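Figure 6 in text form: structure in, sequence out.
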């Protein structure tokens, strides 16, 4: 099993940056593909970005391309989401997730979830 704990959320002005971290427990972190999802009030949880177990392949939703970057450090059992040029529409709870399935973009493809961290972008 994998336990995930997100951190790094907060309040930021539009155009600002935040870096989210997802710390994983267990010795098998490098066996899992990782992803970030987000859920805004009254909306479905949506895929933001994903990364392969090795970190060599990363992919993201069109809405964040060019602004958000996912990465991971398997030695530290941690995944990251660097968010630049934030917009008010990026306001949401951000969740990290782990999967044995590569390249997943759907919630059902992910087996383990963190508790989420709030990101609020003011205009």
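Output sequence:
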């Amino acid at each position: 099993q994998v336990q995930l704990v997100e951190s790094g959320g907060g309040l930021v002005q539009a155009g600002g940056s935040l870096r989210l971290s997802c710390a994983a427990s267990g010795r098998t972190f490098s066996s899992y593909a990782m992803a970030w999802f987000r859920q805004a009030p009254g909306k479905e949880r949506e895929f933001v970005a994903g990364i392969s177990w090795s970190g060599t392949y990363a992919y993201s939703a069109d809405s964040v391309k060019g602004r958000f970057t996912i990465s991971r450090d398997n030695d530290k059992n941690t995944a990251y989401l660097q968010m630049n040029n934030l917009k008010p529409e990026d306001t949401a709870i951000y969740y990290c997730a782990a999967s044995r399935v590569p390249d997943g973009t759907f919630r059902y493809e992910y087996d383990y979830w963190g508790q989420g961290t709030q990101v609020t972008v003011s205009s």
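Caption detail: Residues 9 and 119 are 5 Å apart (CA to CA).
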